[in-house]
């Protein structure tokens, strides 16, 4: 399982892991998963989809509601976690691990300065 | 063994049992192979249940007795306006002059039906403050879609069709709003609500621009709150060159008090099956007429009903029309009920509908406020939202509260919507309930809140009294089995 303290977060509860300067893994936070409840369906993008920052790239459906997931960075979808199609529960079980959503290749170093680190994110969530 | 009437027809079927007795056919028998190609003839007999008439009767009566409707009990399903629909309107819809006509019969032989449609359009103009009405759309979401096609036709006629690609939708909107926009080919931009639960003016100003096709809004919104800045909202959208769409799902709150036309909306739909007397919720037909202002009239669906002297005509020569959106003339029977309802209530009666609906919602809200969190404290219109956050901390979720209400004989309110309220319960009592009924519901809700503290198991394990207990929604959604399999 990925160490939460190495991740960066958005206010919309996506997380970003910097695997390389220009290559990231993206998922949604433990708080997001807790709010959604039991997740029953995850729709992921096609490989090679070009994403702008804040583009909608996935849909996560729970017994309560359906949520759109937005890309925190600009780039090309280079991997998708297709295990989630058959086992969406992995997202509930390990949002920072086996429940990751996609990996994005950026054409330039990814700037995370606008994102929150784990402690800032926890503080943000406690104020919600 | 006695047949149990929870069983399926196939399970109580016995070979050779019959519910009919027919004489020998007097027509000469023809071999199937003489009239059908071989690949269309089934090799085994179809498996049809074999039952007596009484068994079939008990089976379906048993099923109908398990059903819950507004005639069985209180049904406070927020945003759905599950109110009582007077039976006189059902009677009138069944008059043979309305029920036994055919949409293709010559207009001169169906003048009464055309007159009713014409008069209903006139009445709905008054209710909505619009200049023209089309009764075609089959229900609310189709009305939204048709309305957005009118937006598109308008922008195209102004040479701005390519440029105006975006529909703005508040984050508290009914899910059909963004869905209809996507089906109409638009991109959706979400507008965040402000702290008072209303459209944020600053967020709206930041979102509008030369690419704005329009804004879709429900007023009062899904939190049951009136958008008090509606005039300014309309100005902002109009100044940017966009149009305003009124989702009429919550019309029960404003009848005779205000109109979407006065608020500045350009296109509106009404859900006749919610606000104007048609039973709904069982998947039966609805009706979602749309209304527009003068400058959009040319784009309305075709055919239309027109009056010349004392004669009513069906006209189809409307070159700028978005075309036909529904077969024939929409769901005519629903429109008959709506007309009968409007005429029997009268203008004063409709105004009383909204006054009572708003009073009832505020009364319930006031009784429940000490026991549940109310994210928005101001007075509500016809519905209100509670948050189950206080109960969630005790391990009792909103879903549990909803399930527990079933044991008290109530239908559960809408839950987990609008999405912007955590552990949301959305309650719409409607105008047709007596005070004693509202009190019985409030008492049940208060008892559930107390049980959440003292005996949480009685809530989290509910329902205890129903034929079907807690369903495994998660497995049903993750691994659905959608066909019946014979054991």
UniProtKB/TrEMBL annotation, chain A:
<dbReference type="GO" id="GO:0005829">
    <property type="term" value="C:cytosol"/>
</dbReference>
<dbReference type="GO" id="GO:0019464">
    <property type="term" value="P:glycine decarboxylation via glycine cleavage system"/>
</dbReference>
<keyword id="KW-0450">Lipoyl</keyword>
<comment type="similarity">
    <text>Belongs to the GcvH family.</text>
</comment>
<comment type="function">
    <text>The glycine cleavage system catalyzes the degradation of glycine. The H protein shuttles the methylamine group of glycine from the P protein to the T protein.</text>
</comment>
<dbReference type="Pfam" id="PF01597">
    <property type="entry name" value="GCV_H"/>
</dbReference>
<protein>
    <recommendedName>
        <fullName>Glycine cleavage system H protein</fullName>
    </recommendedName>
</protein>
<comment type="subunit">
    <text>The glycine cleavage system is composed of four proteins: P, T, L and H.</text>
</comment>
<dbReference type="InterPro" id="IPR011053">
    <property type="entry name" value="Single_hybrid_motif"/>
</dbReference>
<dbReference type="GO" id="GO:0009249">
    <property type="term" value="P:protein lipoylation"/>
</dbReference>
<dbReference type="InterPro" id="IPR002930">
    <property type="entry name" value="GCV_H"/>
</dbReference>
<dbReference type="InterPro" id="IPR000089">
    <property type="entry name" value="Biotin_lipoyl"/>
</dbReference>
<dbReference type="GO" id="GO:0005960">
    <property type="term" value="C:glycine cleavage complex"/>
</dbReference>
<feature type="domain" description="Lipoyl-binding">
    <location>
        <begin position="23"/>
        <end position="105"/>
    </location>
</feature>
<dbReference type="InterPro" id="IPR033753">
    <property type="entry name" value="GCV_H/Fam206"/>
</dbReference>
<dbReference type="InterPro" id="IPR017453">
    <property type="entry name" value="GCV_H_sub"/>
</dbReference>
<feature type="modified residue" description="N6-lipoyllysine">
    <location>
        <position position="64"/>
    </location>
</feature>
From TrEMBL, chain B:
<dbReference type="InterPro" id="IPR049316">
    <property type="entry name" value="GDC-P_C"/>
</dbReference>
<dbReference type="InterPro" id="IPR023012">
    <property type="entry name" value="GcvPB"/>
</dbReference>
<dbReference type="InterPro" id="IPR020581">
    <property type="entry name" value="GDC_P"/>
</dbReference>
<dbReference type="GO" id="GO:0004375">
    <property type="term" value="F:glycine dehydrogenase (decarboxylating) activity"/>
</dbReference>
<comment type="subunit">
    <text>The glycine cleavage system is composed of four proteins: P, T, L and H. In this organism, the P 'protein' is a heterodimer of two subunits.</text>
</comment>
<dbReference type="GO" id="GO:0005829">
    <property type="term" value="C:cytosol"/>
</dbReference>
<dbReference type="GO" id="GO:0005960">
    <property type="term" value="C:glycine cleavage complex"/>
</dbReference>
<dbReference type="GO" id="GO:0019464">
    <property type="term" value="P:glycine decarboxylation via glycine cleavage system"/>
</dbReference>
<dbReference type="InterPro" id="IPR000192">
    <property type="entry name" value="Aminotrans_V_dom"/>
</dbReference>
<dbReference type="GO" id="GO:0030170">
    <property type="term" value="F:pyridoxal phosphate binding"/>
</dbReference>
<dbReference type="InterPro" id="IPR015424">
    <property type="entry name" value="PyrdxlP-dep_Trfase"/>
</dbReference>
<dbReference type="GO" id="GO:0016594">
    <property type="term" value="F:glycine binding"/>
</dbReference>
<comment type="function">
    <text>The glycine cleavage system catalyzes the degradation of glycine. The P protein binds the alpha-amino group of glycine through its pyridoxal phosphate cofactor; CO(2) is released and the remaining methylamine moiety is then transferred to the lipoamide cofactor of the H protein.</text>
</comment>
<protein>
    <recommendedName>
        <fullName>Probable glycine dehydrogenase (decarboxylating) subunit 2</fullName>
        <ecNumber>1.4.4.2</ecNumber>
    </recommendedName>
</protein>
<dbReference type="InterPro" id="IPR015422">
    <property type="entry name" value="PyrdxlP-dep_Trfase_small"/>
</dbReference>
<keyword id="KW-0560">Oxidoreductase</keyword>
<dbReference type="Pfam" id="PF00266">
    <property type="entry name" value="Aminotran_5"/>
</dbReference>
<dbReference type="InterPro" id="IPR015421">
    <property type="entry name" value="PyrdxlP-dep_Trfase_major"/>
</dbReference>
<comment type="similarity">
    <text>Belongs to the GcvP family. C-terminal subunit subfamily.</text>
</comment>
<dbReference type="Pfam" id="PF21478">
    <property type="entry name" value="GcvP2_C"/>
</dbReference>
<keyword id="KW-0663">Pyridoxal phosphate</keyword>
<feature type="domain" description="Aminotransferase class V">
    <location>
        <begin position="162"/>
        <end position="281"/>
    </location>
</feature>
């Amino acid at each position: 399982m990925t160490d939460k303290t190495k991740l960066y977060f958005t206010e919309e509860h996506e997380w970003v892991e910097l695997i390389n300067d220009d290559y990231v893994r993206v998922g949604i936070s433990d708080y997001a998963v807790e709010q959604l409840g039991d997740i029953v369906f995850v729709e992921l993008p096609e490989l090679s989809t070009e994403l702008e920052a804040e583009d909608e790239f996935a849909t996560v459906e729970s017994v309560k509601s359906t949520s759109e997931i937005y890309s925190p960075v600009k780039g090309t979808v280079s991997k998708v976690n297709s295990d989630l199609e058959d086992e969406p529960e992995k997202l509930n079980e390990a949002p920072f691990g086996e429940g990751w959503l996609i990996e994005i290749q950026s054409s330039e170093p990814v700037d995370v300065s606008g994102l929150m680190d784990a402690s800032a994110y926890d503080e943000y969530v406690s104020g919600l | 063994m006695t047949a149990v009437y929870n069983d399926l027809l196939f399970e109580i079927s016995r070979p050779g049992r019959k519910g009919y007795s027919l004489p020998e056919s007097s027509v000469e028998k023809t071999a199937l192979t003489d009239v059908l190609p071989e690949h269309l003839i089934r090799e085994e007999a179809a498996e049809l249940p074999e039952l007596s008439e009484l068994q079939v009767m008990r089976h379906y009566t048993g099923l109908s007795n398990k059903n819950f409707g507004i005639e069985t009990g209180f049904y406070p399903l927020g945003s759905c306006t599950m109110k009582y629909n007077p039976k006189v309107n059902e009677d009138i819809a069944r008059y043979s002059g309305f029920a036994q006509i055919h949409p293709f019969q010559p207009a001169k032989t169906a003048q009464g039906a055309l007159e009713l449609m014409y008069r209903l359009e006139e009445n709905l103009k008054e209710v909505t403050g619009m200049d023209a009405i089309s009764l075609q759309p089959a229900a609310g979401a189709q009305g939204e879609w048709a309305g957005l096609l009118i937006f598109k036709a308008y922008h195209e006629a102004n040479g701005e069709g390519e440029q105006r690609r975006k529909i703005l939708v508040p984050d508290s909107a009914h899910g059909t709003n963004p869905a209809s926009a996507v089906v109409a080919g638009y991109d959706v931009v979400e507008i965040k609500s402000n702290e008072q639960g209303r459209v944020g003016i600053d967020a709206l100003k930041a979102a509008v621009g030369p690419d704005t096709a329009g804004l879709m809004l429900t007023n009062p919104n899904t939190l049951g709150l009136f958008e008090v800045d509606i005039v300014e909202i309309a100005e902002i959208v109009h100044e940017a060159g966009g149009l305003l769409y009124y989702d009429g799902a919550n019309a029960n709150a404003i009848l005779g008090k205000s109109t979407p036309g006065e608020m500045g909306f350009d296109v509106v739909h009404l859900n006749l099956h919610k606000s104007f007397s048609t039973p709904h919720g069982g998947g039966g037909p609805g009706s979602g007429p749309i209304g527009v202002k003068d400058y959009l009239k040319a784009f309305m669906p075709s055919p239309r009903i027109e009056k010349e002297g004392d004669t009513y005509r069906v006209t189809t020569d409307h070159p700028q029309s978005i075309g036909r959106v529904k077969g024939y003339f929409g769901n005519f029977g629903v429109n008959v009920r709506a007309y009968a309802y409007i005429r029997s209530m009268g203008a004063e009666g409709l105004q009383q509908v909204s006054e009572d609906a708003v009073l009832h919602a505020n009364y319930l809200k006031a009784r429940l406020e000490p026991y549940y969190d109310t994210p928005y404290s101001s007075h509500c219109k016809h519905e209100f939202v509670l948050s189950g956050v206080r109960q969630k901390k005790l391990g009792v979720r909103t879903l549990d509260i909803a399930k527990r209400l079933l044991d008290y004989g109530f239908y559960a309110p809408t839950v987990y919507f609008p999405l912007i309220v955590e552990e949301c319960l959305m309650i719409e009592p409607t105008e047709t309930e007596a005070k004693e009924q509202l009190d019985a519901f409030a008492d049940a809700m208060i008892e559930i809140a107390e049980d959440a503290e003292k005996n949480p198991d009685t809530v989290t394990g509910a329902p205890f009294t129903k034929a079907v207990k807690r369903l495994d929604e998660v497995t049903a959604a993750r691994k659905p089995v959608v066909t019946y399999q014979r054991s």
